[in-house]
TrEMBL record:
Belongs to the TPD52 family. It holds the Pfam family TPD52. This is Tumor protein D52. Residues 1-41, 149-189 are annotated as: Disordered. It comes from the Eukaryota. Keywords: Coiled coil. One of its GO terms (cellular component) is cytoplasm. It comes from Seriola lalandi dorsalis. PANTHER family: TUMOR PROTEIN D52 (PTHR19307:SF12).
Length: 189
């Protein structure tokens, strides 16, 4: 029997209780000092007493939690309401944090800069299109298209449409003057 006790003392294979420190359950503990049967009995009684206290406290805690749930139910506080309150509280904590404020300010500044950049690009495109429209080549092209439109639109007359003279200028002759037409290069400058 003593050999069995020595083996237990040298290699304790006890399962750690709930709440024990994780380090003590991983690192092997040194063997307990030799004690008398009387000391062992006292420790055993103390162990039973502490375990009973833990059971009692667990029961008291469960009763208190039930009482808390009943009070909340009577007050109309539901788990959903509690969740909403927790989310609201957490959101307030986040929005008042320094990191959130810095990020918000940075994004706001970036948005302003992006808006200004897009505005500048839009203005530049508008100016360029206005320059193209005012270019002599475009004006000349515009006039030729207008002339072509006028000549191709039948005039309202009382005479027979077959009596009209054919146009002296054809569509081909109006559009065959490449020096007057805008090119890709003139449109981009």
């Amino acid at each position: 029997m003593e050999d069995a006790e020595k083996g237990f003392q040298q290699h304790p294979d006890s399962v750690p209780e709930v709440g024990e420190d994780a380090v003590t359950s991983v690192v092997p503990s040194p063997p307990p000092p030799a004690m008398t049967e009387e000391e062992r009995q006292e420790l055993q009684e103390e162990l039973v007493k502490v375990e009973d206290e833990i059971r009692t406290l667990t029961q008291v805690l469960a009763a208190k939690e039930k009482e808390l749930a009943d009070i909340k139910r009577k007050m109309g506080i539901t788990p959903l309401n509690e969740l909403k309150q927790n989310i609201t509280k957490t959101w307030q904590e986040v929005t008042t944090s320094t990191a959130y404020k810095r990020t918000s300010e940075t994004l706001s500044q970036a948005g302003l800069k992006a808006t200004a950049a897009f505005s500048n690009v839009g203005s530049a495109i508008s100016r360029k299109l206005e320059d193209v429209r005012n270019a002599p080549t475009f004006k000349s092209f515009e006039e030729k298209v207008e002339t072509l439109k006028t000549k191709m639109t039948p005039a309202a007359s009382t005479s027979d449409p077959g009596d009209q003279e054919p146009s002296s200028q054809t569509t081909e002759s109006l559009l065959s003057q490449p020096e007057d037409l805008p090119t890709q290069e003139t449109l981009m400058h």
